[in-house]
Specification:
Blueprint: H1 14-25, H2 27-60, E1 72-76, E2 82-86, E3 93-101, E4 107-109, E5 123-132, E6 139-141, E7 148-151, H3 157-166, E8 171-177, E9 182-188, E10 196-203, E11 219-224, E12 227-229, E13 232-235, E14 240-244, E15 247-251, E16 255-256, E17 263-267, E18 275-281, H4 283-308, H5 324-337, E19 356-358, E20 364-366, H6 368-374, H7 378-386, H8 399-411, H9 416-484
Helix pairs in contact: 1-9, 2-4, 2-8, 2-9, 4-5, 5-8
């Protein structure tokens, strides 16, 4: 490509002229870029609002349904012996508990081997989980279960342990160093009389019940010691035996959620005196949830105000200043809080009746004295916040439930925020296409201008050369005429 120096022929600063002309013609493009930046700022602002609405909805949902108000706390007069946790299905009350026996899992130990690498024997162990009948020692496998056959590999204590643990046999195996050797200990994974252990051997030495080889690890409750009942029973499987409010109870586990509706009892020790378990409404937890709702409301309200407010004298206003969709979200939020509730006779009618009201500084708060008075009847509070209401009658729906619905509508696929963000996204794409189209036209315009000015420059240069030549010729002619005279 030939090198050209713009304006050399004419002395005119062509680059400066073209640059200035193009600056004027690029103004529509600059306007598009400013608009694009504003659109992106609006999308970002709506993203902040959507995030705050989602966080607000999470807080609202902690108290928007009746079961969320069924929060109970428990206490035990002897936590070393028994404790309890409560679900929403619990009932307030006191329970007297005595524990005469804890549930235990079966545990068996082998004879002492020299080391974990000692070869015990090879073959297959068969492990079953079931119950042992008192007196007869008759073993009955658990209903629905079958014996698990385990190949013990090289037959070392380590290999046998690993093979047992790799199988889903309902037991675990460990090796205990006694100081004078190693023992294999097999323990049932579950407690209770239904989780006794039976182990039989298919010993490669041909004798499947003697106390040598792999059969030394056999434990059949129906056989005799040294002849198929060869492991040492360290602990027998047994159920927990307890008494609840005078009622005898048997439990296969020390942790049970089926003894008392809504409570999970954890038994830790046998008792010599009754343990008192108290179940009561956890008003502190409920208050914490209400405080979280109030805090989330204030955060959302501030975000909406920050994104829509008009700043006196500011050259650049906030992204959503005057945006009707964003302003409507703020208005709906406030109107919902200021609404009324129509419930049962004697119910609270407004949030302020429960102490939830706007403070002098314009933020939502909780008046502790009013809340304390209202929380003496949690059923009323529960209805005020979480009543399902009658379809079509807004005032019959609890406030938290209304706010949950409000948030879902705002964030839904056809909701205010989603629709507005989608619309802004389409405008961004259209703007970008317009920019690209205009960029192309401007590039062509600049190329034409430069070509025209270059052509003009060349013509001016030619005329200047011609003028110089004529001047030189006239000077020569004049000199010639002077010489003749």
């Amino acid at each position: 490509m030939p090198i050209s120096a713009s304006g050399i022929g004419s002395g005119i600063d062509i680059n400066s002229i073209v640059t200035q002309l193009m600056a004027t013609e690029r103004r529509p493009l600059d306007r598009l870029k400013i608009d694009q930046s504003a659109l992106q700022s609006s999308i970002s602002a709506y993203g902040k609002i959507a995030s705050s609405v989602a966080a607000f909805q999470d807080a609202v949902r902690q108290i928007s349904t009746p079961e969320k108000w069924q929060i109970y706390q428990t206490s035990s007069s002897n936590e070393a012996a028994a404790t309890a946790t409560a679900s929403s299905a619990a009932t307030e009350g006191d329970y007297s508990l005595t524990v005469s026996q804890l549930a235990k899992g079966a545990r068996l130990a082998s004879a002492t081997a020299a080391s974990p690498s000692t070869i015990v024997g090879t073959g297959t162990l068969s492990i079953s989980i079931g119950s042992i009948a008192p007196g007869t020692n008759l073993f009955t496998i658990q209903p629905g279960k079958t014996a698990v056959n385990i190949n013990v590999g090289d037959g070392s204590l380590t290999s046998i342990r690993d093979a047992i643990n790799a199988a889903a046999a309902g037991v675990s195996a460990t090796i205990v160093n006694t100081g004078s050797g190693s023992k294999l200990v097999v323990t049932a994974k579950e407690t209770g009389v239904q989780n006794a252990i039976k182990i039989t051997a298919s010993d490669n030495d041909g004798n499947h019940t003697d106390a040598t080889g792999l059969s030394s690890l056999a434990f059949d409750p129906e056989l005799s010691v040294g002849a198929g009942k060869n492991l040492d029973p360290l602990q027998s499987a047994q159920d927990a035996l307890l008494n609840v409010n005078g009622i005898p109870v048997v439990s296969a586990s020390n942790t049970s959620s089926t003894i008392i509706d809504g409570l999970t009892l954890t038994l830790k020790a046998e008792t010599t005196a009754p343990v008192s378990i108290r179940v009561s409404k956890d008003t502190a937890a409920i208050k914490k949830s209400v405080d979280s709702l109030v805090s989330a409301y204030n955060t959302l309200q501030q975000v909406l105000k920050d994104q829509t407010k008009y700043v006196e004298g500011a050259k650049n206003q906030v992204p959503l200043q005057g945006d009707s969709a964003a302003v409507s979200v703020l208005q709906r939020l406030r109107s919902t809080i200021f609404g009324e509730f129509t419930g049962q006779s004697g119910d609270f009618n407004r949030l302020s009746d429960a102490g939830v009201a706007f403070q002098k500084n314009g933020v939502l708060g909780v008046d502790q004295s009013k809340w304390n008075a209202a929380s003496t009847d949690l059923s009323k509070l529960a209805r005020l916040f979480s009543a399902a209401g009658t379809p079509g009658v807004t005032s019959s729906t609890g406030f938290a439930k209304r706010l949950d619905t409000f948030a879902s509508e705002i964030l839904g696929t056809s909701g205010t925020i989603t629709s507005r963000t989608d619309g802004l996204g389409r405008s961004v794409k259209t703007n970008q296409k317009n920019q690209e189209s205009l960029e192309g036209r401007l590039a062509q315009r600049e190329a034409r201008l430069r070509a025209q000015y270059q052509a003009m420059d060349s013509k001016v240069a030619g005329l200047q050369a011609l003028g110089t030549s004529v001047t030189q010729q006239l000077s020569a002619l004049q000199q010639s005429l002077q010489n003749r005279n």
